[in-house]
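Subject: Sanity check before I submit

Could someone independently write out the structure tokens for this chain? I want to compare against mine line by line before I put it in a report. The sequence has 219 residues.
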Amino acid sequence: ADGKIWFGTADGLAYMDQSGIIDTLIMPTDISGTITSLAADSFGNIWIGTLDGAAMYMPDGYFATFKSAFSDDASRQDITPLYSDAVGVISPIPLGGVFTDGRSGDIWFGFDGCAVVLHSPYSASESLKPLKIYPNPAVAERRIVPTIYIADVPPDAPLLIYNSAGELVRQIEHYWKAQDGVFRWDCTNDAGQLVAPGVYVIAAPSENGIAKGKLLLIR
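---
Independent answer below. Compare away.
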């Protein structure tokens, strides 16, 4: 990824750049620093298996962490269908346990006795799909508004939400999307205020083009 050679060590993640300089990265505190396996996808993300949890390191410097439902210390948003928190380990021998499929975006994790696939949004595509927005129309009752889910967003794209007058009411950076690749919008503007009912245009600009969609908000 970016001309770097990546290393997974017993003490964390490191890389060597094109000039031969080796640098280390601070691992998230909620997973093990002992890396058992690495794999890169076509978007430059580094997928990591450890003795206690998995992670994705993104080119912009952010980590997303993943734990199994059997974890006793995972936050709710980190829970995934991982079979175990020990990735790529057949006791007591660590094996390569993370594999990426650039065409489908699937990430395969190997465990002692089985494999689990996570479906990521990082798949090869010749053209951008329209954004999938739901519920749509969205109905707000008694100032209780539904959460809006926006899917099929390009991996490197933020969300820009415009009202019918063409004014930008909310910008959500790409690193705020959930681990399933889906954005969630609470129908507030950048000041935290509920937006008015009406038609909203949602755009996701990326280096491959702009994915768009429309939302009707009713009260």
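---
OP: Matches mine. For the report I'm noting this point. The chain has two domains: 5-119, 132-218.
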